[in-house]
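Journal club prep, notes for RB
We'll compare a predicted complex against what the paper describes. Inputs for the 2-acetamido-2-deoxy-beta-D-glucopyranose case:
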Amino acid sequence: MVRAMILVVVLTTAVLGFMTGPCVSTPPPPPQVTEAQLQQIAASLQMYVDELPEIPRLYGYSWDSNGVPVPGNLTIGMYEKKWKFHRDFPPTTVFAYGTSAEAATVPGPIIEALRNTRTLVTWLNFLPQKHILPFDTTIPTAIPKNGGVPTVVHLHGAVDPADSDGSAFAWYTSNFGETGPKWTQATYTYPNVQHSGNLWYHDHALGLTRVNLLAGLVGIYRITDPVFDHTLNLPSGPEFDRHLMVFDRSFYMDGSLYMNATGDNPSIHPQWQPEYFGDAIIVNGKAWPYLEVQRRKYRFRIINSSNARFFNFTLSNGMPFTIIGSDASYLPSPVTTPSFLLAPSEIADVIVDFSLASVKEIILNNNAAYPFPGGDAVDNLNGQVMKFVVTPGNPSPPDNSVVPNILKNYVPTTMTSSVTRYIVLYEYDSATGNPTHLFINGKSLTDPVTETPKSGSTEIWHVINLTPDNHPLHLHLAYYQALKVQQLVDLDNFTNCMTQKNDAVACNVSAHATGPVDVVPANERTWKNVVKIKPGYQTTVIVKFNLVENDAPYPFDATKSPGYVYHCHILDHEDNEMIRPLQPVP
Ligand SMILES: *[C@@H]1O[C@H](CO)[C@@H](O)[C@H](O)[C@H]1NC(C)=O
Ligand SMILES: *[C@@H]1O[C@H](CO)[C@@H](O)[C@H](O)[C@H]1NC(C)=O
Ligand SMILES: *[C@@H]1O[C@H](CO)[C@@H](O)[C@H](O)[C@H]1NC(C)=O
Ligand SMILES: *[C@@H]1O[C@H](CO)[C@@H](O)[C@H](O)[C@H]1NC(C)=O
Ligand SMILES: *[C@@H]1O[C@H](CO)[C@@H](O)[C@H](O)[C@H]1NC(C)=O
Ligand SMILES: *[C@@H]1O[C@H](CO)[C@@H](O)[C@H](O)[C@H]1NC(C)=O
Ligand SMILES: [Cu+2]
């Protein structure tokens, strides 16, 4: 669905020179369907009839007889299979991660990793010749000569060597039949040298991220610190420490996944749309599931793996959330709040205490407009996420967990750094006012690298958003956090100048970044890998190219090929070039 977009810059296709790779035929167009029909299909699914599924767990380590951890070596495949998203709905063809086609799930298995113990994963592609979803060959896209579905796995939030980071150019098809220009190896090494926290893995193939994730290639990865995490005494164990992976999908009547096969500017991009929004909200692979809970505290690690949907969560009985972490880091102290906003790919680590509930049924609701913040209001469908059914009586076993007042102090943040960069987000629109593509700093992914931080260093980035949307910006390798979020005054004038000069200093940015300052929410003041970048604002962030817990250098050479990237985590934006290389140097 294309939502109203403000025209920022008008470019013609002639300027873009976008065609890449050989001309290939796209899949045949699926049956025509209207927005209203898609909504009806989602509305026909009765809410809260499926139980929240258990996600299988794989251990990326083991213990030897002396209780010393041993590195793990997992093999995980990608399979086409049928998946039941709802009790009353026909099975859906998906792409899923798992140790076998039978075992594969949407989302994929939870990988349990241990801090400072290496996990190797061999990621194998068993996908068929043809994709199950439409895609667009006019944006830079991995297009194998002999068919097949290009894939490559990125572990989001990982501090990992570049050759295990899942470069968009390191893709491969089934059986490594064909490989992209940066492909080097089948087995990826995750050193797990960072502090404990919540990560997730997903596909990252060039120009296909939005499509491959929509098809189901998403999964959860957690790093546990065997010493520190136990000292916190938070709710623990698979029953009380749970992962919730939330995303939105629309479906055809026959159960197949819906993705619009027509682009918003079909004469320029036959298929690409600026944002995917689905009508059904899926948690751990089921549409609007329920979970029976005891009257006690639960830990929920909530990952928003939507392509473009933001969620602003509340509980229907007004109970608060106690937020203990954001992305892969703990907060210094818990933050208690009745609502919190999660952008695509952002992660919230929250405690909910159901012993405070005076009602039996509690709905996890969402009230975020889409696109966020200026788009449509939520409705009865996408305004609800899942239901908690509180079982009466005392918890068994008794709840001895606590939420400590102090969680974790990483190295204190300072505002200072010798290196400052301006990072500017642009949207380009066609003559009809529909987005054609998005760039960072006016550059495409394949333009020469400009972000070359010293490995081990700290930098200050001023991220300027000249588009009408909030963009969740994600950095590979580095962790970062917002220091100051300030509105740009005389924005049209500044945007005009930037469109002509693409130079923040020449456009006198300091005279424009003088508007009201937004308070950074307390639940986001920690080391993150996704920071929401507000439209019409300059967000100043501090970026660390080291281990943020203690400022130590990476214990591996982060300067090697093929380097890293940073990008918007609205996948439809990432695929259409809101992505740039990031190459640490010695
Ligand atoms: C890990 O598993 C892969 C695939 O089974 C195998 O090729 C590789 O040799 C193993 N590596 C180690 C270090 O055991
Ligand atoms: C698919 O995209 C086209 C072009 O933007 C639009 O006209 C149509 O309404 C979209 N279909 C649905 C079901 O949203
Ligand atoms: C999920 O992420 C999408 C895209 O970044 C965002 O629009 C949406 O609000 C997020 N939802 C939740 C529940 O966090
Ligand atoms: C989230 O919802 C709460 C409760 O309705 C509201 O007070 C808050 O302003 C919302 N936040 C955003 C960012 O929309
Ligand atoms: C911006 O405003 C200044 C002062 O009002 C004016 O001189 C300048 O031409 C404007 N620049 C653009 C690009 O509109
Ligand atoms: C930039 O803004 C400052 C503060 O308003 C002003 O003094 C200065 O003349 C401006 N410079 C240019 C080149 O517009
Ligand atoms: Cu974006």
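Talking point for the session: The chain has seven helices and 32 strands.
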